[in-house]
Specification:
The chain has helices at about 25-35, 40-55, 60-70, 75-80, 85-90. It is mainly alpha-helical. The longest helix is centred in the middle third of the chain and has 17 residues, at about 40-55.
């Protein structure tokens, strides 16, 4: 298992707590931890989340990602199986979305 850099700040669940500590290299490591190998489609969702967060101050919902990034919800479930909103936020280095348990 790949180790996350020691200078990275996370909460108890492993979500990054400092926006600027994220990098694409770190995203690859985080995705690998949860069994995901990032493709261009994954990056489209991740980059949307990264760009959307500073404007809105919270992690975008699945519906927002689907509508504004043009990625069908069904495809988000295929890319990030199980709990796509939570997994996308984790890999994108953002807080866990509201409503996720």
């Amino acid at each position: 298992m790949t180790t996350v850099h020691p200078e990275i700040h996370t909460d108890a669940e492993g979500f990054l707590t400092v926006y600027d500590e994220w990098s694409e290299e770190l995203a690859v490591q985080l995705a690998a931890r949860i069994g995901i190998e990032l493709t261009d489609e994954h990056w489209k969702a991740i980059r949307f989340l990264r760009e959307d967060y500073p404007t809105h101050g919270e992690t975008a919902t699945l519906r927002r990602v689907s509508t504004l990034a043009g990625i069908p919800v069904k495809q988000l479930f295929a890319l990030f199986p199980g709990k796509p909103a939570k997994k996308m936020a984790y890999v994108a280095g953002l807080p866990k979305p509201r409503g996720c348990v």
